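Project outcomes to date are best conveyed with an example. Our students and postdoctoral researchers have been running inverse folding experiments weekly, and each run begins with a structure described purely in tokens. The record below, which covers 339 residues, was selected by the lab manager from last quarter's runs and is presented without edits.
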């Protein structure tokens, strides 16, 4: 069996101290670029694999970040993870991903798994069914760096990164009004989730801005799914005073709306307007292409990593919780462009 290459083997090959090799491999600023280059070249040639357990024992860090997402079914979270992983890799971190399946119980198991793995920090997007937040409070009490992304909770005083959901919803509703639609309905999400309550608040504000009376009949309590979009559209079309446009809480929900309208042979956008929220990849490739609000998913992931990296670096220091809010972008496509 081939003996495992150690730092001492690399040091012997180069005629330098093992401590110098160790610092070169960890990109220490006091080691010259030429020495780092030589050490890296020999390490690659000898097929050196660092002992992460030993390294973590020495440094007190595992170089692991736990990312807890509600579901892997939606492109949104995959795109955010892409942003997190890219920067994590550049900073020498690996990412552990746990899916809660929108379950509070699984979410708690995910937190326990991360704590057991001794991750350096945890990033979380809260499950839509979570109403007891004691597991997040426990993480704070253990002095483990934690931050939320997308789905947040301000009451917990945990740092977060999210899009300006209020502004995005205002922009989406306003764009439908400016396109000439007179009666705009909204398919909303669970209101205990701040992102969804902010979207309905933005929707109402846009109506008020344009002197359009808010009608409770034009709200359908749905979720992020094609089926919810279909059911919401069917409900609105059953009303005596039917709307002529729908702002859906998310693109998959908007896709369900489009499918229902197509089945009923209602022409989009001339007879009916539709806009979603997220800017999922499929939106520009369907017919009609879907108008939406870009949530800046990759940027959200990158900002989430920057935030947790900063919290890890300042672990043990007294810091105020931060709230980083990204500005959304309106993307107008065929589904809301009237001739």
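After processing, the design step wrote out the following sequence:
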């Amino acid at each position: 069996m081939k003996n495992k290459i150690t730092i001492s083997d690399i040091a012997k090959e180069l005629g330098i101290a093992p401590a110098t090799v160790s610092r070169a491999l960890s990109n220490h600023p006091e080691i010259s670029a030429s020495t780092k280059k030589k050490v890296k070249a020999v390490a690659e040639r000898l097929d050196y694999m660092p002992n992460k357990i030993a390294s973590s024992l020495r440094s007190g860090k595992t170089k692991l970040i736990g990312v807890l997402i509600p579901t892997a079914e939606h492109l949104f979270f995959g795109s955010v993870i892409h942003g997190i992983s890219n920067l994590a890799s550049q900073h020498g971190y690996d990412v552990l991903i746990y899916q809660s399946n929108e379950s509070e119980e699984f979410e708690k198991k995910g937190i326990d798994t991360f704590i057991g793995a001794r991750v350096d920090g945890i990033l979380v997007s809260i499950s839509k069914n979570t109403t007891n937040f004691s597991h997040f409070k426990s993480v704070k009490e253990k002095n483990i760096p934690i931050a939320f992304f997308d789905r947040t909770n301000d009451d917990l005083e945990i740092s977060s990164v999210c899009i300006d959901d209020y502004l995005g919803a205002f922009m989406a509703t306003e764009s439908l009004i400016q396109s000439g639609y007179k009666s705009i309905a909204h398919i909303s999400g669970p209101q205990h989730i701040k992102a969804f309550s902010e979207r309905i608040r933005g929707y109402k504000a846009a109506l008020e801005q344009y002197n359009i009376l808010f009608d409770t009949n034009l709200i359908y309590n749905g979720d992020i799914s094609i089926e919810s979009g279909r059911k919401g559209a069917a409900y609105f079309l059953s009303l005596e005073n039917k709307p002529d446009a729908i702002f859906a809480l998310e693109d998959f929900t908007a896709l369900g709306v489009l499918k229902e309208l197509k089945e009923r042979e209602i022409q989009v956008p001339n007879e009916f307007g539709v806009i979603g929220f997220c800017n999922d990849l499929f939106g520009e490739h369907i017919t009609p292409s879907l108008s939406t609000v870009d949530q800046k998913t990759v940027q959200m992931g990158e900002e989430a990593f920057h935030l947790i990296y900063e919290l890890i670096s300042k672990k043990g220091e007294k810091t105020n919780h931060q709230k980083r809010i990204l500005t959304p972008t309106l993307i107008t496509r065929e589904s809301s462009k009237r001739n």
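The chain is about 45% helix and 15% strand. The longest helix spans residues 297-313. The training component of this project remains on track.
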